[in-house]
Amino acid sequence: MSDRRDQQLHFRVSKPELERIRNKMESSGILSIGSYLRKMALDGYCLHLDLPQLRRMAYLLQMCSNNLNQYAKVANENGRVYAADMEDLRARLDELISIGKQILSRLAEL
């Protein structure tokens, strides 16, 4: 592989984008913008996380929160809760824990 850098790339950025690039460059300790851009283009990476489990988890969290508030209200009014309600809430929480573990394992693979 030749070490000669005889090829050029040109692209335009806005002023705010240039400022962000320079700030990131300075925080990484690289003094040359060309060196920084080359390093990021060759060794950097961008992440696009599409985790449908997050949507399911957010939905279940909302449902559990709503149900828990209703159970607390009933418990305060009647002084008791129903076992079936508690089992339903427990099943949803178990599913949330499972989804959370799946998400963490997928993130650990990155």
From TrEMBL:
It comes from the Bacteria. This is Mobilization protein.
